[in-house]
């Protein structure tokens, strides 16, 4: 029949172990199947697999069947990323006859300020590193300036590469 095992973590000679009592007494010639589910934390730096040493030991007289077996389990990180964004102001209407003032370094002479804010959220369950976000902004339309890219900033330990033409007129 199916029974739940009683398992206890233990440390022996610097080795972390989980000791499970399978049965006492066990009948001679008994065959058993054990399915175990292990929850192991801190696997971010383990590489692509984790190795377990499994051994069946008897408290009875020494036996040559006390050999151990190595089991290697692949480690796979799962993560769900979410990108959120908005523009401030949400809507901008440009006058039809508006023209920028050539040579001016004043922001108002180049158009209406629109700020785009993007947030990357890790919804887990694993941690992430080395995430790359490539964002393409249409800055020209029909050979004319649509959006003048003024600056790029980040928060939260991220770094960005400035796109070509960022604040080309040094506004």
UniProtKB/TrEMBL annotation:
Compartment(s) where it occurs, according to its Swiss-Prot or TrEMBL record: Membrane
Q: Cross-referenced InterPro entries, in alphabetical order?
A: Integrin_alpha_Ig-like_2 (IPR048285), Integrin_alpha_Ig-like_3 (IPR048286), Integrin_dom_sf (IPR032695)
Q: Which domain of life is it from?
A: Eukaryota
The residue range of the signal peptide is: none
Q: Which PANTHER family would you find in this protein's record?
A: INTEGRIN ALPHA, INTEGRIN ALPHA-IIB
Q: Which UniProt key words apply to this protein?
A: Glycoprotein, Integrin, Membrane
Give the membrane topology: Single-pass type I membrane protein
Any idea what this protein is called?
A: ITA2B protein
Q: Which GO terms describe its cellular component?
A: external side of plasma membrane; integrin complex
A Pfam family annotated for this UniProt entry: Integrin_A_Ig_2
Q: Which residues form the Integrin alpha second immunoglobulin-like domain?
A: 3-75
Which molecular function terms from Gene Ontology are attached?
A: integrin binding
Q: What's any GO biological process attached to this entry?
A: cell adhesion mediated by integrin
This chain is encoded by the gene named Itga2b_0
Query: Residue limits of the Integrin alpha third immunoglobulin-like domain?
Result: 82-168
């Amino acid at each position: 029949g199916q029974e739940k095992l009683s398992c206890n973590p233990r440390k022996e000679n610097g080795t972390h172990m989980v000791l499970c009592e399978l049965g006492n007494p066990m009948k001679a010639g008994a065959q058993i199947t054990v399915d175990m589910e292990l929850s192991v934390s801190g696997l971010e730096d383990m590489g692509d697999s984790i190795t377990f040493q499994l051994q069946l030991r008897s408290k009875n007289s020494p036996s040559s069947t006390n050999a151990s077996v190595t089991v290697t389990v692949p480690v796979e990180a799962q993560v769900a990323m979410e990108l959120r964004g908005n523009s401030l102001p949400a809507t901008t209407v440009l006058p039809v006859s508006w023209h920028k003032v050539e040579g001016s370094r004043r922001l108002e002479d180049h158009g209406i300020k629109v700020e785009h804010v993007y947030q990357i959220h890790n919804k887990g369950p694993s941690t992430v590193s080395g995430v790359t976000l490539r964002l393409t902004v249409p800055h020209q339309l029909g050979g004319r300036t649509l959006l003048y890219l003024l600056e790029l900033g980040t928060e939260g330990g991220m770094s960005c590469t400035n796109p070509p033409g960022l604040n080309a007129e040094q506004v």
